[in-house]
């Protein structure tokens, strides 16, 4: 017994030392996410990244404005919550030097109602809330245009506003609200456009509950963003590669059952 233990002890010590060394040399980064799917997906990414020496700490933000400000200020090293049109708009408005380094998932936006079972049931002059940021508000207007509810000016691109509505046969009243507050608006409007992450937080089913739902197309795939100065650092590749794994894809498909779609 003593002889066996004498051989095993150095092996145990060596294994423990290797584990300690890996932990000691692990690089820690803070990633900003919004609550719900983005945070849940990154919980699945964390152990994969940890095996590659990257320790991920998640910082949750309750809105869409602060994560880019925090990233630009260096308070976090990356964020995962936005699509390219939104990032482009933030960079143009605020001068952020932030870049996309990898695609993540798509969240088809939906229009929900507590009062009507179909969008056609909304009466003339009905109130419809839309997100008050140009990108997500524009998504909803494009959705309504594609469904034949309204018409928009030609050449509005991906960010039309209510001022670009040229025909509105039902004289719908568009109420602009902060995206995070959209679920609360449901009681006060005929219908509310709600981003998937906020819909799931509010207990809504983004596949079954919407009375209108965006087709999973266009530029609205979400992304991982970092500061431009960091985009070529080794940890960025580890981060993106850890996200773009079969294990994470399977997690997304199983967990969200079509409400969130892998886009890599």
From TrEMBL:
Signal peptide annotation: 1-26
Protein's name in the database: Methionine ABC transporter substrate-binding protein
Superkingdom of the organism of origin: Bacteria
Membrane topology: Lipid-anchor
UniProtKB keywords: Lipoprotein, Membrane, Palmitate, Signal
Upper taxonomic lineage: Bacteria, Pseudomonadati, Pseudomonadota, Alphaproteobacteria, Hyphomicrobiales
Chief site of localization: membrane
Any one Gene Ontology cellular component term annotated for this protein: membrane
Keyword Cell division carried by entry: no
Record's subcellular location: Membrane
PANTHER family documented for this protein: D-METHIONINE-BINDING LIPOPROTEIN METQ (PTHR30429), D-METHIONINE-BINDING LIPOPROTEIN METQ-RELATED (PTHR30429:SF1)
UniProt-listed InterPro entries: Lipoprotein_NlpA (IPR004872)
Similarity comment text for this entry: Belongs to the NlpA lipoprotein family.
């Amino acid at each position: 017994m003593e002889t066996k233990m004498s051989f095993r002890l150095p092996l145990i010590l060596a294994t423990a030392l290797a584990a300690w060394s890996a932990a000691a040399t692990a690089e820690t980064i803070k990633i900003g996410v919004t609550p719900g799917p983005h945070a849940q997906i990154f919980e699945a990414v964390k152990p994969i990244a940890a095996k590659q020496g990257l320790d991920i700490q998640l910082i949750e933000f309750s809105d869409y404005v602060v994560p880019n400000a925090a990233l630009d200020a260096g308070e976090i090293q990356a964020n995962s919550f936005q699509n390219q049109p939104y990032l482009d708009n933030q960079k143009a408005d605020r001068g952020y030097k932030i870049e996309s380094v990898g695609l993540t998932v798509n969240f088809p936006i939906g229009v929900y109602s507590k009062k009507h079972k179909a969008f056609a049931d909304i009466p003339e002059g009905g109130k419809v809330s839309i997100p008050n940021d140009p990108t997500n508000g524009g998504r909803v207007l494009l959705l309504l245009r594609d469904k034949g509810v309204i018409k928009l000016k030609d050449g509005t691109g991906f960010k039309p506003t209510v001022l670009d509505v040229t025909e509105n046969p039902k004289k719908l009243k568009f109420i602009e609200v902060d995206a995070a507050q959209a679920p609360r608006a449901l009681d006060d409007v005929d219908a509310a456009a709600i981003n998937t992450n906020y819909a799931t937080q509010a207990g809504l089913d983004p596949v079954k509950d919407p009375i209108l739902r965006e087709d999973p197309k266009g530029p609205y795939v979400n992304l991982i963003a970092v500061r431009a100065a960091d985009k070529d650092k080794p940890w960025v590749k580890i981060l993106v590669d850890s996200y773009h794994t079969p294990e994470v894809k399977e997690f997304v498909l199983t967990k969200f059952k079509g409400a969130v779609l892998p886009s890599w």
